[in-house]
Amino acid sequence: MRRLVFLAVVLSLVFAASMASATTVVYLSQERVTPGTGLEIYIPTDNRRLTAEAGNYILNVNPTAPKSGILISGYCVDPSYSSQWFQEYTELPITTALNTTSEPNGYAGFAAAAWIVSKGYTGTAAVTAQAAVWELTWDYVYGKPFDLSANNFRLYSSSSAETDVKNIYYAALEAVNHGFVPSAYVIYHNGQYQDFVAQHVPVPPSVLLMGSGLLGLGLLGYRRKRG
Q: Is 60:32 a contact under the CB 8 Å cutoff?
């Protein structure tokens, strides 16, 4: 019986590992931004101002094929704003954003961005939340203090907007400091198009069924051998 349990655990771990590797590369399409309010921001890569659509980015993600998949919401974490239609993206766990010399606050910054996604902000609050995410992932991760008028991310708007962004920014960092774990969220990365922080897209039921079948066959074969 102990060997049977051990075999089940081993097969489960192998199956889990295969699922993780199968979802490393996904196909992603940016559907829309809601509400899509234009914010005038600074783009460090181009050294210029740009009016960016801000809010909840509605993403269409398919872990197996470049076609219609699952709609999820997330936020932009990249200063590139090219739109795309089902391009290949690498799905990176937030835990891979580890502290480095160049990004000393990498994990905390992206984990805080994931917390903001988890809050489900809508309307004008989602616009403010997107600005907070940009400040976290463009400045905080590099060890820069909160400042919407300097460094990589700059917001050209009213002082009231700055106060709202600051409140969400610090609330997110406080959540991470108090134990928020972004295990259900990932970074969707593409070298050509903008990156996002959003929910992890689950493996399709057909793949889960196949894995369960393999596990069942393994246990059945073991029982026959024992008999």
A: no
